[in-house]
Amino acid sequence: MIKLNIKKNGLINVKSFTEKKEIRHFIREELWDMTNASSNPDATETAEKIWNLNVGTSTNVLGYTIAMAGKSFDHNSMLGDK
Fold first, then answer.
1. Which whole-number Å values give the CA distances from 33 to 41, 42, 55, 74, in the listed order?
2. What's the total number of domains in the chain?
3. 3 pairs with which residues across the strands?
């Protein structure tokens, strides 16, 4: 799971994601500017870039600053524990 701080216009939202496809969905549903669709970045590439951020680093997407607040991976999930 990763935890992101998403900031725009001085407001900070904290979101958690467990899979890259969730980030891709968030980009398409929450960040894309549908009034100017040609300016939207590729959601898959952007999700990959965000997923690979190091803790404490950030990237800018369509006026949003997205910072990696934390990463934790549940290694027990591979064994079927939840």
1. 10, 12, 27, 34
2. 1
3. 16, 70
Tens-digit pLDDT profile for residues 35-69: 777 788 899 999 999 999 999 999 999 999 999 99
How far, in whole angstroms, is CA 8 from its chain's centroid?
A: 14
Q: Give me the chain's average pLDDT, please.
A: 88
User: What would the two tokens of residue 71 be?
Assistant: 């990463």
**Over residues 6-16, mean pLDDT:** 95
* Domain presence at residue 77: no
* Residue 67, domain member (yes or no): yes
Q: For residue 81, is it within any domain?
A: no
